[in-house]
Design brief:
Elements (H helix, E strand, L loop, with lengths): L20 H23 L9 H5 L7 H18 L11 H11 L2 H14 L4 E8 L2 E8 L14 E7 L6 H4 L3 H8 L5 H9 L1
Antiparallel strand pairs: 1-2, 1-3
Helix pairs in contact: 1-3
The structure holds manganese (III) ion.
Length: 199
């Protein structure tokens, strides 16, 4: 059973003007495809072959750097595509909105904290909103690490993630990472984020 590159629920052009089609296409068919294929090569013929990506990430500290980088890359991009939509934007509702108000004071505060985490992650990495035993938290991770990994500082279940590697925005935004972060709020599918929050 090999890991498969997931299909997107929307066209590469669908997130324009916030994320351009060329970036989406290269990101999905080259970057995500490479993480997926490298992960398959790395687990092939080992016991990990029959484990879920979540099981693998939970013990990543005892596995190779190749599996850490590519397993993270495989999982992170799958989440990223799924929490975006051409009909995204706006604000979360219901239970998720209540939890955000409780843990951050307001949606505006969450936006500030998350955007700051994304902007200040030095080099390549991700910003996350995650569910922990003590509530919602914002964090960022380097490279392809994520909050499901046993080696990461802030652990929990990621419900929203933003790729801040240059390959995610450079064609459209060049060095202007803050503009890309601002644009991201227009494509977040809060219904999908809420589904992850309720799991
Ligand atoms: Mn990426």
């Amino acid at each position: 059973m090999a890991f498969e590159l997931p299909k997107l629920d929307y066209a590469y052009t669908a997130l324009e003007p916030h994320i351009d089609a060329r970036t989406m296409e290269i990101h999905h068919t080259k970057h995500h495809a490479a993480y997926t294929s490298n992960l398959n090569v790395a687990v092939s013929g080992t016991k990990l072959e029959n484990e879920s990506i979540e099981q693998i990430l939970a013990k990543i500290g005892s596995l190779s750097l190749t599996i850490r980088n590519n397993g993270g890359g495989y999982y992170n991009h799958d989440l990223f595509w799924k929490i975006m939509s051409p009909n995204g934007g706006g604000a979360p509702k219901g239970d998720l909105a209540n939890a955000i108000n409780k843990d951050f004071g307001s949606f505006e505060n969450l936006k500030k904290e998350f955007s700051n985490a994304a902007a200040t992650r030095f080099g390549s990495g991700w910003a996350w909103l995650l569910k922990t035993d003590t509530g919602l938290k914002v964090t960022s991770t380097p490279n392809q690490d994520n909050p499901l990994m046993d080696i990461t500082e802030v652990k929990g279940a990621p419900i929203l993630g933003l790729d801040v590697w240059e390959h995610a925005y450079y064609l459209l935004y060049q060095n202007r990472r803050p503009d890309y972060i601002t644009a991201f709020w227009n494509v977040i599918d809060w219904e999908k984020v809420t589904e992850r929050f309720k799991k």
